[in-house]
Amino acid sequence: MSVITGLGVIAPNGLGLKEFWTATLSGRSGITELDRFDTSDYPARLAGLVRDLDSAKHLPGRLLPQTDVSTRLALIAAQWALEDAEVDTAELADYDMSVVTANASGGFEFAHREFKKLWAQGPEHISVYESFAWFYAVNTGQISIRHGMRGPGSALVAEQAGGLYALGQAARTIRNDVPLVVCGGLDSAFDPWGWLSHLSSGQVSLDPDPATAYRPFDVGASGYIPGEGGAICIVESPESARARGVRAYGELAGYAATFDPHPDRGGPPGLRRAAELALVDAGIDVGDVDVVFADGAGLPKLDRAEALTLRELFGTRGVPVTVPKALTGRLLSGGGMLDVVTALMSIQEGVIPPTSGTAVVPDDYGIDLVTGEARPAAVRNALVLARGRWGFNAAVVVRGVQNGR
Q1: Segments of the chain assigned to CATH 3.40.47.10
Q2: CATH 3.40.47.10 fits 2-244, yes or no
């Protein structure tokens, strides 16, 4: 068993847990026009952007020249999560603290800036930090170094499912007798090369209206909006949390991951199996689930497949379903983590945030999608789903605890 005692959030619609949660309940979006370079010749120009975050105010000056924007986001979110959990790293043994992060794009902006120097000026002008700043594991490494955490660390790459994969690995680390794990996922890839990488999927919405561009499960769904940011959480054993005298937001009760079969083999997608295994891991059945935080790809084919999964899983019960990431865009490895944060706050506050932008759900989807306004509800168990490109699936069950904040 693991509990979550601290949350650090950096999202397009809010910096910090309080601001993000307020924005999510009120429907305030962080999707806007991408303005970090000239996008006038691109077919899509909307993104979920983190604004008004001055890294120099939150990080030592020595770290700024050696880190990509995604690593700066991870370092700041980790600091906020540690502060939220009231962790004094000086009071804990270095090998009793671990770091597990997910990252889908690496240090895109940093690497491409250095590539430009290489092509235009020559190799002698490349930063020495390029050797690691681009790497997928750099967030785990930088957090570990900054806070003196020498327990077993991990870095995972699973696109949109990556954040949930990190939570699963954190739970395994706790079971291996490490008391505390800093865990999460954050991504940012909004330089010109990164933007082309997003567009190459063919799944980005070309709708120029921020209010309708990303509308999961809607009859007019036409793609998703990329975003940046994510969340870091502090995962602990219950014994560690009690010993430190801190309360928990909730319990990380169940986790599972699966892969989709190769398209040529004709097998069913793996999302349902991931959800079923996560429920088994949590020791609950479908009747105990109070809300589903869906992946919500915003593409008719994928939305229909997920709706079918939910119908097969829950039958006619009509469990509430929501996709709050419609306000932020899909954040790659940060998306699942942000949904877990939202699920924990739903448990704490007794309310389910709505799916922004979605107006009409096809009748044959057969899901109870929460739209319009937040819905009051007693939430004890929340199921969080995530799918990454190339067949990644993950499911997490978070549960309320009696001493929850």
Answers
A1: 2-244, 255-397
A2: yes
What is the rounded distance in angstroms from the CA atom of residue 63 to the CA atom of residue 78? Answer: 15
Q: Taking every pair of C-alpha atoms in the chain, what is the biggest distance, in angstroms?
A: 65
Task: Give tens-digit pLDDT for 29-49.
Answer: 999 999 999 999 999 999 999
- Residue 126: left if φ>0, alpha if ψ -120 to 50, beta else—which one? beta
Counting every residue written for the chain, the total comes to: 405
Q: Six-digit token pair at 271? A: 């999302």
pTM: 0.95
Class of domain 255-397: alpha beta
Q: At what angle do helices 271-282 and 300-314 cross, to 10 degrees?
A: 40
96-138 pLDDT tens trace: 999 999 999 888 787 878 788 778 888 888 887 787 888 889 9
Q: What are 220-262's pLDDT values in tens digits? A: 999 999 999 999 999 999 999 999 999 999 999 999 999 998 8
Q: Is 331 within 8 Å of 302 (Cβ atoms)? A: no
What's the rounded Cα separation, in Å, for the pair 236 and 6?
A: 9
A 10 A CB-CB count for 182 gives 32
